């Protein structure tokens, strides 16, 4: 039941890396958090809403649970299939703590952690979590190259480097906890490598860490 999560800030290269990894693994399916089509209008509302961070995190938590339920079904139907999640619980935790810090002076920090720790019990634990990192300048360059130029991690005109820095710092804390509970973590810096080089690093490391042949 191989379940892999790909995490990273927006523009890190999660989507590209997930599809390259799925290609290399063969029998693999990619899911997203939130899944396209999951309560889209509400998602748009909450993506714009930075004031009520507790309502926002509750929505994204439910979206993550929805993705998790799909993953469970997929893994039950075909135990040999790899499922790759482009964002998961860790995004929801880290992004909302970052939001709260930058926009609300960490007013709701304890509440976000409490909500997320309740929901954690319902989540399937991944076999491997891949964290893709990218330096700020390169991330800016890649975001600017996007068709609409939007920084879609935040979908907001208030998106700025403070959020990016806070998101990365919160990811680090989330990953410290993850390491303590024994989850396998692969950290890859995607700043100075070409897409195919990054894909190759991830393919090889995934094979070794999951003891699978990914050649
Ligand atoms: N190693 C790389 N070198 C150059 N461009 C990259 C690299 N990895 C990803 N990109 C580009 O950066 C952009 C963001 O990648 P994407 O996979 O959409 O990121 P994410 O899903 O994390 O937001 C895309 O245009 C992608 O083609
Ligand atoms: C999981 C999660 C995602 N998001 C955001 C990140 C994206 O902007 C959006 C997902 O929208 P989507 O357009 O589906 O993904 P992307 O643009 O990254 O390919 O949801 C949160 O704000 N909080 C969360 O907890």
Automatic annotation (TrEMBL):
One of its GO terms (biological process) is dTDP biosynthetic process. It catalyses: dTMP + ATP = dTDP + ADP. The gene is tmk. Coiled coil: none annotated. InterPro entries: P-loop_NTPase, Thymidylate_kin-like_dom, Thymidylate_kinase. GO terms for molecular function: ATP binding; dTMP kinase activity; nucleoside diphosphate kinase activity. Residues 6-191 form the Thymidylate kinase-like domain. PANTHER family: THYMIDYLATE KINASE, UMP-CMP KINASE 2, MITOCHONDRIAL. It holds the Pfam family Thymidylate_kin. It comes from the Archaea. It comes from Candidatus Micrarchaeum acidiphilum ARMAN-2. This is Probable thymidylate kinase. SUPFAM superfamilies: P-loop containing nucleoside triphosphate hydrolases (SSF52540). Keywords: ATP-binding, Kinase, Nucleotide biosynthesis, Nucleotide-binding, Transferase. GO terms for cellular component: cytoplasm. Belongs to the thymidylate kinase family.
